[in-house]
Amino acid sequence: MNRKLIAEFKYAPAPVIRGYNKRSLYINLSTGEIKEKPVTELMIDKFVGGKGFDLYLMWHAIKDETKWDSPENEICISFGPLCGNTSYPGSGKSIVTTISPLTGIPVDCNVGGHFGPYTKFSGWDAIELQGIAKEEVIVYIDGDKGVVQILSAPDEEINSHIFAEELIKEFADSEDKYQFVSVVSSGKAAENVLITCLNFSFWDKRRKVARLKQAGRGGTGSVFRHKKIKALVVKYSGLKVDSNNPVDVETLRKRGLKLHQEIEAGDSTQNRMRQVGTAHLMEIMNDYDLLPIRNFKYGQMPEAEGLHSREFKKLFTQGMPDGCWFGCSLSCCKAVDNFEPRTGPYKGKKVCVDGPEYETAAGCGSNIGVFNARDVVEINFYCDTYGVDTISFGTSTAFAMECYENGILNKERTGGLELTWGNADAALELLHQMARGDGFGVIVGQGVRKMKQIFAEKYGADPDFLQDIGMEAKGLEYSQYMSKESLAQQGGYTLALKGPQHDEAWLIFMDMVNNQIPTFKDKAEALHYFPMFRTWFGLQGLCKLPWNDIEPANNAETDEPAKVPEHVQNYVDIYTAITGKPLNKKTLIEQSERVYNFQKVFCLRMGKGRRIDDVPPYRAVGPVTEEEYLSRQDRYDKQLKEKLNIDPEGKSTTEKMDILRKYREDQYQQLIDAVYERKGWNAQGVPKIEHLQKIGMDLPEVIEVVKRFL
Amino acid sequence: MKMLKTFPDKCITCHNCESACSKLYFKEDNAKKSCVVINEEIYPPEMIVCNQCGTCVDVCPTLALTINTQGVVILNKSLCIGCLMCVAACPINSMRFTENVYNPFKCIACGICTRTCPAEAIEIVTA
Ligand code: SF4
Ligand code: SF4
Ligand code: SF4
User: Fold this and answer.
1) For the residues of A511-571, what is the DSSP string, one character each?
2) Where are the domains of chain B?
3) Average pLDDT of A251-265?
4) What is the pTM of this model?
5) Domain ranges of chain A
6) Is residue B97 less than 8 Å (CB to CB) from chain A?
């Protein structure tokens, strides 16, 4: 490819010391400025790394009124001090943040692939991308030579499954060195819609293809393409077991080996991550009435057998070390090889499809009434390559389908598409429209919140009904679990800072199945601990899955099995082994708590994050329609009797639904009170100044913003 | 396939084989750095050495492990990133590792141990 050099910056590569480079890379696409910024001790002490660095850098780069498409909005990518070690499973994550086009507040995504570790070992603890390029560009980091370049990008094909591979071949020194190059790209749809993602590649030496992992949530791909970036490319060839220069490599190796051994011994009887990845959850969720079906109406249907993990196992190539980073023996990144799409521009071509993971199988499967595994794989493939987030696509399409079912939409309004449950062809056509930038797909691709507005304004739909069934909060689409019967999970979803994603708290089993957190206080404690604990992965550049998707054989006998105490201790140990800094289980949570509250205040600053924004659609809380109530009538009637002391006999379904709704909504508000209290926030959801002082997040710029809301 | 065959009944636990192996590959007489391990805590002694089964080859993420034309599993140090996934995967603990050595190591069926064994308890066979 003939590329013009637009800007260049040379730097001296230097080894990482104890997990840090102590410098970050700033790139302004508008001006072509590229520079190095120091990572200060304050950043390390208070923000640790990863998401902490991203948010800190973004905070100081943007204004209160910055929107997703403002030139000063940034895409920040950071890696964390533990990122890139090859010893402990799950250590290769990048964390991406930006002001989201869907929510207007910071969104953060934790993503695998080789880009993060390679960029870190190239010399950078974080990258900031600001401005909008005048022409289409590629940003190239050569970590071997110490050069950063902005290059012109006349490339025609930008859909990731092809583009990532082309760039790997272009930038690698030779064919046997493809694995040293990694690419971040999006796809055609990111130019036209907002529910988009970024794909982070890793070269799969066995399959000889570029595999793609998604920074999925919140529309990162749209920001990327709006900046006229076609791709980021990094090359780094010096990876070693001690590339982080840890203080105590032996402890790191021992903890890693112990976990490898647990996985060897336990995975095939625990979660079978190595056989089917997170798709093992499909039948479990269906069994427990938790698998979202038809826009989260139901959690269980016999048809869901069609999406049983055994169906995916038949499609996934078995026996490969499918880790998204070296050293991950949990290896959950399954792939369907030689898949032939039956629709769209790649029809009949043989492609490798990453996944489907649970979220994709549920969102692009059961939630839209599609129960055929191959259809899910095809939707998955086109979502990825076009740069569409499978979770938001699933939830948005499910919403559109329910609107179609209710006559809010019809063939005329959808441009001829029959958005009936299970119509995989129509779902695929929506995707192709998103990529082409035409048709009804472009409307669906704006996400649920915008669709609600459009359908109310244009088609006179009842805004209250749309609010009830539109599965979004703060503008972000729900991820794929039913929270109706778990109050704690309703909080887990709706209180999540970026919007309803399960990565902050997944409490359904603790709450609903095992009844381990019965009181408001218990739930509030869980909604404090788990979001803080899970935030820590994003500070360090780690994956959550090896924490509790494999458990030590004796885990059930420990005091708090839900926390997997031995693995938490491993994290404490490897943190100290790499950074040389002391840590214990308590200070671990404190590291997170500072950054978590900083992000909370950041949301406030951008105009969201108060109690009025922590509102779930009623579909996430209870049955919206008679049909839903009747489908689980025994359960709901029993609750009226047992929890409310109300005899359901002789009452109409509508009456019963109203009573139940009042009760559940009230419970939710009581939960919120308890959680805010536990988190040190006032009743409006604003962090108290004393609390910020106590946890050490009382920077003047933070206090200044908080004061506006007190 | 070229591999070592062991005869525990004949082993007199002199540990000559371990010395020979570690001396050849690590230039020191240190049983922790030998690819063959003699465990005399049980009787007859346990003689642990790679049988070239290839399990480790399948889990290596960098393709640092390959099987050569003689059927021997070989580790390419320049590709190895020291993750130790192969160590955990080996069914008989024959992929070895030790402190301060970042790559694991294993028997390559060179046969030096067989020549130092006074009891003919270990020999090279081609299966
Ligand atoms: S568990 Fe899966 S997602 Fe996490 S690091 Fe390992 S391969 Fe990647
Ligand atoms: S080291 Fe272990 S897994 Fe590898 S070939 Fe030898 S016996 Fe098999
Ligand atoms: S330690 Fe080296 S040889 Fe073993 S699996 Fe890891 S990279 Fe492969």
Assistant:
1) IIIS----SHHHHHHHHHHHHHHHHHHHHHT--SHHHHSS--TTGGGSS-GGG-HHHHHHH
2) 2-52+91-126
3) 97
4) 0.97
5) 5-235, 267-477, 488-496+505-550+584-708
6) yes
Q: Is residue A472 within a helix (H) or strand (E), and if so which, with residue range?
A: strand A472-473
Asked if B41 reaches chain A (Cβ–Cβ under 8 Å), the answer is: no
The pLDDT tens digits for A552-582 are 999 999 999 999 999 999 999 999 999 999 9
Q: Which residues from chain B sit within 8 angstroms of residue A256, using beta carbons?
A: 83-84
Q: Which helix (H) or strand (E) holds B90?
A: none
Domains A267-477 and A488-496+505-550+584-708 share a fold: no
Q: How far apart are CA A587 and CA A341, in angstroms?
A: 50
- pLDDT at residue number A437: 98
User: Can you name the CATH fold of A267-477?
Assistant: 1.10.569
CATH number for the domain whose boundaries are B2-52+91-126 = 3.30.70.20
pLDDT in tens, A6-34: 999 999 999 999 999 999 999 999 999 99
Q: What's the complex ipTM?
A: 0.96
Topology, domain A488-496+505-550+584-708:
1.10.599
Q: Does A242 touch chain B (CB under 8 A)?
A: yes
Helical segments of A267-386, H only = 273-276, 281-287, 309-315, 358-363, 373-386
Average pLDDT over residues B6-31: 95
In the three-class reduction of DSSP (H, G, I as helix; E, B as strand; rest coil), residue A179 is classed as helix
Task: Say how far apart CA A299 and CA A512 lie, in whole Å.
Answer: 14
Assign domain A5-235 to a CATH class: alpha beta
Contact A78, A54 (CB under 8 A): yes
CA–CA gap between residue A344 and residue A237 (Å, rounded): 37
Closest CA to B107 of B90, B120, B119, B121: B90
- Residue A513 has what pLDDT? 87
Each as own residue / partner, the long-range contacts of residues A561-564 (CB below 8 Å, 24 or more positions apart, any chain) are: A562/A510, A562/A516, A563/A529, A563/A533
How many A×B Cβ pairs under 8 Å?
Answer: 64
Encoded tokens for A118: 């390679």
Using the beta-carbon criterion (under 8 Å), do B89 and A205 form an inter-chain contact?
no
